[in-house]
Design brief:
Blueprint: E1 2-4, E2 27-33, E3 36-42, E4 49-55, E5 61-67, E6 72-80, E7 84-86, E8 94-102, E9 108-117, E10 121-124, E11 129-132, E12 138-139, E13 145-154, E14 159-161, E15 166-182, E16 201-218, E17 246-254, E18 261-270, E19 298-316, E20 341-349, E21 352-353, E22 358-362, E23 396-399, E24 407-409
Length: about 425
């Protein structure tokens, strides 16, 4: 989407040339300095302008131009007499002109200089969509960005988007051929966890308006809820209980005359009980709710004079965001340990018991099989969050001519 940069918001309009038709060469800015009249002239097409220099006598003069946009300084006229026109100017920008003459040593002797502001025009082609940039605009006491526009032209299917800002458009001529001004695009949606923005406030003060203009007051849809984090170890189920005790014996045999110890005879008498199964994990956190959608916004349309000018409008408050999924449940508890193992150990020499019987325990069985409990089941996912609420319809007020009364509406038409 192209962004419209409005670098200037103020320009002078000559009362004697105030016409609301698309006539070429209207004198919209005039300055008399020394012996040269400097005028900004409208071209026939929206966005076209020129700067005209008319001396009062036949004296020769030269012009040096400072182009602040491109950072260039150039001699655009040297030793001319009579009228001179600079066609290389851009709507909305500022230029400085130095008027003087080149003397014998070829140096430039400046007589005077003047900054010239080219009026702001906005022209959208068919189906073109453009956001209205307001970063360099003046701010009213009510907090509106004030943009002064000479000609605002909206072709069929074009869309000028205010992005939900508080904007006051002061327009000399509003020419709409089934174009639209929107507060947001229809698919505008806030980020997760963020409320939708209101469509803001749009004020249009136009001296003259012609054609069909469509206004769409659209609120930004609310962001979806943010899914909570999984419980992790904090949500783990209980560990299973330890199994019941088992019993095993070990017989140690020594050879005759105190010879080497023969392999021990290990026997599992009672297998220790299996550990208990782990508990189920805790249920996950409930999902977070969706965020509320923005209100439609407000539009105030004031037209001083109109010719076959019609306004249609729609309200589309932002939808509420979708609630998030619930958080993941905790992991199942660990299986319980197998029961401990009681061991009786007896030494034999030449087949006869010798040392006293020794009794000890293995916490985890080594002779009998060790059977751990199973891990518990994963906890259930938390419940889904509720959806956010939608925004509200606000209003549009329209006054088509200075002698008409203002009418306000809160339903699409």
């Amino acid at each position: 989407m192209r962004v419209l940069l409005l670098l200037v918001s103020m320009f002078l309009v000559c009362g004697c040339g105030k016409s609301f038709n698309d006539q070429p060469s209207q004198d919209v800015t005039t300055k008399y300095l020394e012996n040269v009249k400097i005028s900004v002239l409208e071209g026939q097409e929206v966005g076209e302008y020129s700067v005209q220099f008319i001396p009062k006598d036949t004296s020769k003069y030269s012009i040096i131009k400072h182009d602040f946009l491109n950072g260039e300084i150039s001699e655009i006229a040297v030793g001319v007499s009579g009228e001179y026109t600079d066609l290389e100017v851009i709507s909305g920008y500022i230029y400085k002109y130095e008027i003087g003459e080149f003397i014998e040593d070829k140096s430039f002797q400046k007589l005077f200089e003047k900054e010239v502001r080219i009026p702001v025009d906005i022209k959208l082609k068919e189906t073109e969509s453009r956001s209205l940039e307001t970063q360099n605009s003046a701010i009213s006491t009510e907090g509106h960005s004030v943009l002064t526009i000479n000609r605002l032209s909206l072709a069929k299917g074009s869309k000028l988007i205010t992005e939900g800002k508080k904007i006051h458009l002061k327009v000399n001529r509003l020419l709409s051929h089934k174009g639209s001004i929107l507060t947001f695009n229809r698919d505008a949606k806030a980020e997760k966890g963020v409320m939708g923005r209101s469509g803001g406030e749009l004020i249009i003060d136009a001296q003259y308006a012609n054609g069909d203009l469509h206004i769409e007051l659209i609120g930004e849809s609310g962001g979806d809820g943010i899914r909570p984090k999984a419980l992790g170890e904090d949500g783990r189920g209980k560990t299973g209980v330890k199994g019941s005790e088992g019993f095993a014996t070990i017989d140690l045999y020594y050879g005759p005359m105190g010879g080497d110890l023969e392999p021990a005879d290990e026997r599992c008498i009672t297998v220790p009980g299996k550990g208990g199964n782990g508990g189920k994990g805790k249920t996950g956190l409930p999902g977070n709710p969706g965020l509320s959608g923005g209100d439609s916004g407000i539009a105030l349309i004031y037209i001083e004079e109109s010719d076959n000018f019609n306004v249609t409008y729609e309200f589309a408050p932002g939808d509420g965001g979708i609630g998030s999924k619930g958080g993941l449940g905790g992991p199942g508890g660990q299986g319980g340990e197998p029961g401990k193992e009681k061991v009786e150990e007896q030494e034999y020499v030449d087949g006869m018991p010798s040392a006293p019987l020794r009794v000890f325990y293995y916490d985890i069985p080594k002779i009998c099989s060790a059977r751990w409990g199973d891990e518990g089941f994963l906890g259930e996912t938390g419940s889904i969050g509720i959806g956010g609420s939608g925004g509200k319809v606000q209003k549009i007020c329209i006054k088509k001519n200075k002698n008409n009364r203002t009418e306000c509406f809160n339903k699409s038409a």
